[in-house]
Amino acid sequence: MSSDDTPSPSTSADVETAVRLGWVVAELRGRSWPDGPRPATTSLPDQPEYTLPLRSQRGYAAAQRSAIQTMMALSKLLGVDAEDADEELAMGRPWAEVSSYFFEFDARVQDSLAWRNEGAANGYLLARGLAECYWGLGPDSAWEEGGKQTGVSLLFLFGVDRRRELSRMLGRLKSGQMHELSAPAIAGSIEAWGKVAEDPSWSRAPDLRDELYEQVRRWYQLLVLDQDPTTLVKPYAKLNSPHGFFRFMRLYRLQIIIGIVAILLLTGFFAFRGQATGWIPSIVGALGVGGAVLTTVLTRAQSTAQRLATRMRQDAYTDLVAVAVTSVPEHPGSPTSGSAIEAAVRKRLLTPATPAPD
After folding, report:
1. Sign of the CA dihedral with 190 first, then 191, 197, and 201 last
2. Which residues lie across from 149 on neighbouring strands?
3. Do 170 and 280 share a domain, yes or no?
4. Hey, which bits of the chain come out as E strands?
5. Is 90 exceeded by the pLDDT of residue 69?
6. Range with the poorest average pLDDT among 24-33, 107-116, 317-326
7. Which of 16, 70, 290, 347 pairs with 205 at a CA distance of 20 to 30 A?
8. pTM for the structure as a whole
9. Overall domain count for the chain
10. Range(s) of the domain holding residue 14
11. What is the mean pLDDT of residues 254-271?
């Protein structure tokens, strides 16, 4: 990574803070929304008293208080005023007032970051957009109104426009701000969820919300905590689709064809050597050797093909990581949902940078 690609410490810190702020804004808004999602929590045993909970075991009120304090602290680091959050987001306030506060606060953050640090503004919107995929999802009955999708429907949250914009924002993250495979892996899982949202039966799967919560937690691990996405790949995991093999065949089809012809000609040379006389065996042998040499020359001379081969291996591994990162419900009545997920992942708009050939 060149020094030009490495973000300065202050810029990097602002982006990380903005990413965390964007995530907590979306989560806090969802927790404050009466119709918002409620992830399942693990209850603590009655005895002994005061057992210390993990984050996922904290009660709803405690989690909301923590989110408010986090939002205020992160806003202060970015120079955005949020001192009124405690009062404006107090329990029991009407949702109309709370939602209005979030709308105005979000505009305040965007306006403040846009002119000071475009990278931080991008990080804020990216994290908020990813977190909203779960925390902005409303009840099934609220997904449509008057025959049109609402802003709380799965199809809106994973619509074409939002998927494209989230992928663009992922691509704008500079080197060093997250693992090089995280952005394409997240982009691939976004495309997989787009496939779920577009399927009427798949989008109504009973465990959809649980799987979506697991999905955003994985995104949080990759984007906010900078987890290595390859740690999510199960041992001995492999792709089910022969897509990579067919790509290899297309890439090297000329060399393969010439190689096969050369083998056939050489085989013919040795087969006819003791039976035929004159110039026929010599021509067959010369053509066979010439074909073999030509195949070798073509293979070694095509640096572009080598680069494409590197890209192909890289894309295949990225597909594997993206599938591992993806958490979607099983398709009701379809045993081939795994292949559908792989196909959707390959439609991602991002891929890792290909290193220059040696």
Report:
1. negative
2. 144
3. yes
4. 144-145, 148-149
5. yes
6. 317-326
7. 347
8. 0.78
9. 2
10. 1-42+51-136
11. 58
